[in-house]
Fold this protein.
Amino acid sequence: MKTRSIAVLLFCITLAATVGAQTTSGLTLYDNFNRQFLNPNKWQPSSPCFTWTVLECVREIQNGQLRLAVRGYGATNSNTGNQYGESELLFTNPSQIRNIATQLTVRRTGAASCPASADFNSGTQVLVKGSFFNSGSGNPSDDVQGFVLLNRLPTDPQDVLSVIAFLNWQGQFFDNVYLGTVKVGQKIAVRLTWHQKTHQFVAAWTDLASGAVAQASMPYAISDTTIAAAPFKSLQVAVFTPNCIGTQMLVDDMEATFDNVMVGGSEE
C-alpha cells in the first residue's frame, strides 16, 4: 500500500512538472520574490507614485509575492476627464526580453462612476506591457508596444474584470482582442509573447485552478527589424478616477499580487 502511494505521488509530481513545462515553454524564471526586498538588479521603479491625486501607492514584497497597489481620487470641479495614478515596476535590460509571463491575482478593485459624466475612459487596470521594436525611424513614437490587461469599468459587475490585449504604434491602438473575464481572487497566469518570425504577438491567460487557457494572436504589418528606441517592459496597476462636480471626491483603487515572473529572449 505504501509503495502504491509513493508511485501515485511520483506520478502526480511528474504530471505537474509536465504541465508546468508546457505552460512556460521557452521561458526562464526571472523573479519569485523569495526575499525581503525588491532586487535592484532586476527592477526599476517609476515615478507616478507621487502624482498629486494618488492617496496610497505600494510596491513591495509581501508573503513571497510582489504586491502592487494604488488608490487615487478624482477632481470635483469638472464632470469630464479623469485623474491618473499607477504603481509600476520596470524590468532592467528590457531589450533582451521578448516574452513575459507571470502568475497574478487581483486582490481588490473599485471603479467609481460619476452620474453626470459621459467619460468612458475611467476605470482600473492590471497591466503586463512593453515596447518590443521600432518600425525603422529610430523615433520613440515609432516603437511598437504590446499590452495584456485586466480592465474594470464602473459599469462592470462587482469584482469582475475583462481580459483584453492590443498593440500600440504612433499613438494608435489596434489589434484589440477580448479574452474573457476573471474575478477578484482568481489565481491566473498571464503571458505576452512577441513572435518576430511570424510577425505577430500572442496574448494568453490560464486559470491556475482548472488549467483552462484563453489565447489570441495579434498580427501586424510593420517593419520589425529595428530595436525599440525607448525599450521597456513592466508590471503595473493603474486607476483612472473620474472627475465629478460635488463635495464628495470619487475614489478608485486597484491591488494585485504577482509571482513567478518568467521571461524569454529568443524565438520559440
Residues 2-23 form the longest helix (22 residues).
